[in-house]
Fold DoxX family protein.
Amino acid sequence: MPKRLTTVLYWFLAMEFALGAVTKYWPGDTMFGPAYSVKFADWGYPSWMRFVVGALEGIAAVLLVIPDKRTRFLAATTLILVLTGAVTTHIVNHDSAMQSWAAPTYLLAMGVVALVNWPADWRDLLRTPVPTK
């Protein structure tokens, strides 16, 4: 994939998560529905948990645009943890597909980003050992 296209992709993903972070801190209703303080409470979490999730999303958004494999890997793995929680929350709460399509989509995207940016010195963990004679 051309470098310019991947840069645009990282910036797009970063902007999506930055927008998500801002909406977590927004005090009232958002363009995505009710305030996240209400959503988190409805899901069974304390309303302050939205600040933790928003901070993780915001930090990861910044790390995604830094052109370094390690920072992008760290961003992707952080978001994989957050998004796994989001997908689980949507499943447990029986949210409609219309409300919950984004979390699994971005979870898959972050899985790809993590694999693409896997640090070179850790790749041996994935290689099959060569048998010695």
